[in-house]
Structures are given as structure tokens and as C-alpha cells.
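Read as amino acids, C-alpha cells; as here:

___
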Amino acid sequence: MSDRKESTVLILTLLATLGIVSFGAWWFTERWRNINNSTATANGTSPVELTATNAAGSCQLPNAPAGLFNYGGSTSWATIRRETEPVLQSICPEFRLRYTDPIDGQPGSGPGIRMSIDNQLSFAQSSRSLKAEEIQTAQAKGLQLQEIPIAIDAIAIAVNLNLDIPGITVAQLKDIYTGKIANWSELGGPDLPITPYSRPLETGGTVGFFRENVLNGEAFSNEVKFVNNTTLTLRELEVDPGGIYYASATEILGQCSVKPLPLIGKSKQPIPPYKEPFAPLQSCRNPHDRVNAEAFRSGEYPITRRLFVIVKVGDRTEQQAGEAYANWLLSPQGQELIEQAGFVRIK
């Protein structure tokens, strides 16, 4: 065989070998990609979520960890959750939040804090400050609890729509709930027995705040009727002409079946929790523009409080999750959404 023929055969053999190797590499790569995609689909994760860019590049929330985080707590936060959760998920899809109710009992600040200490929640939402016993319980488990204030709220007083009374003082409100005042005639109203309503003490942060700051730690009267949640209580109040109830202002102002009662503050004048004039019933379901924010911020309205994110210091990832959430709520965007939810911005 001539040298030219031998060279031609060698070249053709080399090209054939390269073609086989290239095809094999392409086939192996495609096969491996299909296996990965099938595995991702079986695990409930789309193949796109496995890419490095998607895993870390789409979050606009500083220092937010990726993952699913349980949180829960105060029912007063309900309108804040409705306003903020969709926005938060859109700006940081990797930081996923799941609101979690207690397994037993009603949700509230106290249950939320307990669940956080027991590692059922990554962080909690509270409508009151931490109690000494909660701090001690957390310390016994190697945790430190931090409360981060994010908004100003007020306690509104609700009565039956037909009750004709201009307002009461905080002292008179205390006397109603401790049993010293039992008839509306004692407050310049009609001759009508008073039925005070409350949620159970062990559930809500609002209840604990009310007892400590309005009742000055005194016990509720035996005449107080305890109902598990605000929705059920307002239904009772709608048909009880002498009933009275307290809750977060946003929970009261958004109702059509009851009337918010002004409180007499330092000025000796009745200060309503809403902007005057009182909105007609047909617009009562739009409370966001009706909160008396100026009176809440100045303290002229006599029962105000702060809302807190309760962060666990000690668990690195969960601490990072709680702090990222609280810091975003304190950002201009978060504070704007809090205001839209009917609360008063703290910054």
C-alpha cells in the first residue's frame, strides 16, 4: 500500500473515531440531564429551580436565607399579613413563609411565642412585649428572645350600634371589666345592663396587654363573657344591646355590625379611634383610611401599643430569617404596606 493510501486510511479512521466519541459524549450528557430532570420533577422541584442563578440571584431581600420558614402568633397581625406576604414572596421567592396555627387552642401572641421557643416556629408576631417567664423559658433552652417593634396599634372599644353614649374614660372601662360598673346608666347612657366580652386570657396578646395596662393587673370580673375569637364576639355584640368588647383598631373599624366607642383622653374630650366624621355603614369595610393615626402617634388616644417581631437569637438560620423579615417591615416599602393595613408606621 502506498504512503498516500495509508495516510488516507489513518485520517478516515481518526475521523470516524472522533465522531463516535463525540456522539457518545452528547448521548451521555443528554441522558444525564434527563435523569436529573426526572428526579427533580419526582421531588416536586422544577428543573429551573436547580440552576445556580435561580437559587441565589432573584431575591431582593437583604440577608434573607433560602428555605421554608414557619411563623405565626398575633391575630392582630392578620391585615398586615394580607398586605405584606404577596409582596414579600414576589421580591424574594426563595424566602418562603408559612403561617402556622397552634395544634391545640386558638392563635395569639402567647401561643406564637411558646411555639417559637418550642422550635415549631422560626419567629413570632406579637401584639405585646415579652413576659419575664417567656424570656426565662427561652434561656433554659439556650435561646435569647429579641423583640423588634415595627408598628403602632391602638385598642378600640366596640359597642352595639344602637347604644347612645358619647364616650368613656379608661378608668370607667377598667371599672366595667373589674365589675365596679354594671349598668350603662352609671355612665350617662340608657338603663341597660352591661355585658363585657373578652377573649380568654391565655390566648391573645391583646388580652394580656389589656389586663396589664387597662386593668393594672387586676382580675377580670366574673361577669365577663369569654369568647374564643373576635369574629364570634362581634356576632354576639351585634345582638346584645348592652355589650362591650375591645380589640385591635383594625379589627373593629372594618366591621359594619358594631360601633367604635370614643375614649376620653388627657384633653377631657372623647377621642375616637377613627377619623371624624364617622363613616356611614356602606363604607365601613374600608378601615385603612379611617384610622386616627395622628391621635395614635401623639398618644392623645389613650390606649396605644406597639407590634413586635419576636426573633430567636441562638439559631443562626432562624435568627437570620426573623431579622430579615423585621428589617424589611421597617424599610420604606414595609412601612408603607403597614400603613395600608391600617396601622401607624413606626418610622
Notes: Residues 66 and 79 are 25 Å apart (CA to CA).
